[in-house]
TrEMBL record:
Its main location: secreted. It comes from Ovis aries (Sheep). Disulfide bonds join C176-C197, C272-C293. Mediates a firm binding of versican V2 to hyaluronic acid. May play a pivotal role in the formation of the hyaluronan-associated matrix in the central nervous system (CNS) which facilitates neuronal conduction and general structural stabilization. Binds to hyaluronic acid. Residues 16-124 form the Ig-like domain. This is Hyaluronan and proteoglycan link protein 2. GO terms for cellular component: extracellular space; perineuronal net; synapse. CDD domains: Link_domain_HAPLN_module_1, Link_domain_HAPLN_module_2. SMART domains: IG, IGv, LINK.
Amino acid sequence: MKDTNMSGSRAPNPGPHYLLPPIHEVIHSRRGATTTLPCVLGAPPPSYKVRWSKVEPGELRETPILITNGPHARGYGPLGGRARMRRGHRLDASLVIAGVRLEDEGRYRCELINGIEDESLALTLRLEGVVFPYQPSRGRYQFNYYEAKQACEEQDGRLATYAQLYQAWTEGLDWCNAGWLLEGSVRYPVLTARAPCGGRGRPGIRSYGPRDRKRDRYDAFCFTSALSGHVFFVPGRLTLSEAHAACRRRGAVVAKVGHLYAAWKFSGLDQCDGGWLADGSVRFPITTPRPRCGGLPDPGVRSFGFPRPQQAAYGTYCYSE
């Protein structure tokens, strides 16, 4: 007699389950670290392969990373060169990624292929980091999607995801200008609802919804993570060109916006002096708010905007590996 469910139809055959469910489906890491995405078999089928892939955000495709064939494994793409199987024991199919990069964040799939009952599990790699709003010297709402993506990369970051923006909002990000996100949507985070910032409704992530990636223009929300080097301040009354020279004399370069935010977030950089950055803006990081350091009650990176490059009025923030 065949098994049936309550509706009278045949019950699905559950089949064997070889992969153990992960204890944690979200794995946290930082840029530059070595991280492990766990995938363990409870029992192996007679013969099988393991295929690791990355689910690309906003795209209906998966990018292969590594495929095993017995004791051997072959890597694919730029991530495949930094990935290997852990093989801590004969049932271990975990993936180890060395030198984690910003673009490594996302969803991964471990798939067991045996030709009969293939199965898989999904894990999310989430980087600890900081989201920062960005606009060019020309003013707000200058970027289409592709220009916003490039601008974030030029500032040692990448376009933030919705999840990263939401996390930043829970940590205090309140910003009234809309910006592109990696998925192609346009949003802005509001903690204190006010009339000039979408009205006096509830706090939250306000959305403009999907926009035309080539035609529509907004700011960008960028994401960056921990640094391999360090940021330091050089005092003085420097022009932008003098700032570059000052950093070069110290074996460094003028810091990018993402460098400064990462140093503020991860190293607690606190400096009550405006300094040139590589994009021509002048900013300073405040960890401990005080009356004569920007006048705002919360920690953050303050901005003087984009002064004339010939204006000799500021020090500079340098970055050294």
